[in-house]
Amino acid sequence: MSTGGGVAMTNDGNGYLELTQSVSKQLATLREDLPDVMKGFGDLARAATRDGALDRKTKELIALALGVAAHCDACIGFHVQALVRLGTSKAELEEALGMAIYMGGGPSAMYSANALAAYAEFTAGA
């Protein structure tokens, strides 16, 4: 993980805002080219994140921990962005990252640092 000019950087050198925007553009192409698959994925995402026994914030914290464990920068970006929109505090984020580190060891610690960088980037304008 590196930083450039105070902007959080992913492992490939992009900021998380830039990364999520870039991936969103490519996902738009997939929605055009694979409408049934992407509709199914969207429906699954909406059903999985809907408030139920767990609220949406809790579900997004779980998704972030899984993204960290999977070493997925785009997952980190999208789920941290959603968590910021849901009003997640840094302390809440860090506790979820603590669980990811507990379950995933050193590699999850490195990606947890990336998630903190994404949080800093997405909350910088708030």
TrEMBL record:
Please identify the protein, giving its name as recorded: AhpD family alkylhydroperoxidase
Q: Which Gene3D superfamilies match?
A: AhpD-like
Identify the residues that the record assigns to the Carboxymuconolactone decarboxylase-like domain, covering every copy: 35-117
Q: Which domain of life is it from?
A: Bacteria
Q: Which organism is it from?
A: Duganella violaceipulchra
Pfam name, any one: CMD
Q: Write down the PANTHER family for this protein, in alphabetical order.
A: ALKYL HYDROPEROXIDE REDUCTASE AHPD (PTHR33930), BLR3452 PROTEIN (PTHR33930:SF2)
